[in-house]
Amino acid sequence: MKKVYLSILTACLICQPFLITAQISPLSDKQKVKNYLPHMTSNEIDSLLQKSDLVIIPVGALEQHARHLPIGTDFLNGVELCKLIAQESDILVAPVLMAGQSPYHMGFAGTITLSAETVIKVHMEAVQSLIEHDFKRFIIMSSHGGNDAIVDFIVDQVNQTTSGIAVNYDKAIEPFLEPIQSYGGHAGTGETSKSLYLIPNLVKMNRIGTTTNTLPKHLKDIQGSVASDPTTRLVFLAEILKDESTGKKTSSSEISSSGVVGPFELEKTNVKFGEDIVLRNVEAAIQFIDKWNNLVKK
Fold it and tell me: Taking residues 44-73, what's their average pLDDT?
């Protein structure tokens, strides 16, 4: 027994210099974030449950975002926005999947797309897991436009088939959201500005270059009326950015040379504009959460 003990002690002494000089991973920059599920322990989850049964789930995507934004833009921006909301309220941030439904971006390398059925199934099973831990209320956020219909369906299925209660983030904050001039488009002014605020180290503005957008003629003819006319916008969005297999010729690689789709006004793209968009969303979300909490108390 003494020999075994000595052998262990000798091994520890031999390894000690490595333990003393060892450094943390040079790629590790993680700071613990309040109410962010992947960073929390089970005990911390129990403590949060004493204060709130509310969860926010961003439904993101892994898809091309032109030359200057990362593949994970939608997922990362959605998570960061939810984290900011969770610093001002007792709500659990629970991302479930990085990838979403993005078949129309498959013409650019790095895009990963999942079927709607897969995205729905995974999120429903995640919600069921959280319900088992006594979370009851869910805000489902579409942080990628291609997931909008999926999010509506998840919300409906949570409400129709579980003991939980779910709402769509966009619809929830709309009454509290101050108007702001919109600069839509994929990897365009609005999205790039938000990224400059939320994930600045991943934005490469020097790589933007120029973009040639080539729409089918009938869509090009009505494009100018999209912003001002709801009917034109509805019809336009029904065709734009669809999988190459549909034959609509509107997938991102068919209509854009760089991956940017829609307006991009470089002179209006900046971190201040991004901050304004994000903080308006945070404030609106806090107001909705406060009102929902008050309704529950009644």
Answer: 98
| Cα–Cα distance measured from residue 39 to residue 33, given in angstroms and rounded to the nearest whole number | 7
Beta bridge partners of 213: 256
169 within 8 A of 57, measured Cβ to Cβ: no
CATH T-level fold of 37-181+277-297: Rossmann fold (3.40.50)
What is the distance between the alpha carbons of residues 26 and 94, in angstroms, rounded to a whole number? Answer: 27
One-letter amino acid at 294 equals N
- In eight-state DSSP terms, residue 101 is -
The pLDDT assigned to 179 comes to 79
pLDDT over 80 at 276, yes or no: yes
| pLDDT, tens only, 285-296 | 999 999 999 999
> Given the structure tokens 């790095």, which residue do they identify?
110
Assess contact for 162 and 127: CB atoms under 8 A: yes
Tokens representing residue 247 in the block:
């034959």
DSSP letter at 137?
A: E
- Give which of 100, 169, 173, 93 is closest to 135, Cα–Cα: 93
State whether the Cα torsion 63-68-74-76 is positive or negative: positive
What pLDDT is attached to residue 21? Answer: 59
pLDDT at 126 over 80: yes
Name the pTM for this structure.
0.90
